[in-house]
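Worked problem 6 (solution included).
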Amino acid sequence: MNRTRPFGVTLLAILASLAAVIGIIHTLQYLHLFPFFLGPMRFFGFDLFGAILWGITALVYLWVARKLWNVEPEGWLFLVIISIFNLILAGFSILGASTFEAMLPALIVNGLILIYTLLPGTKSAFGTA
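Solution. The predicted structure is:
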């Protein structure tokens, strides 16, 4: 099935790619391979587990961005699920001794993604209205 890609779906694919980049940066920061920009990051004293979780979400976001680019309905569903999971993960990172400022980019991008995916026009572009 050859579907046209509306601008909103393109925007979601770009935001998903941006969320993947943020996930990769957080992974590298938890591995202490990348400097901290906005504040220190710790994950309950076990930074390797935080790096694994952020790395997995980054990979899922890259997969979802490809699905969105092809306007596949499962891309929309996974985007909703992974953005909720990433918001929860950012919240746990804050509870685990990371600063709110360090998690702010992830919170903003994932919040925007979740809000935009739940709009009626976005749902109808994927045939899920």
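Discussion: The mean pLDDT is 89.
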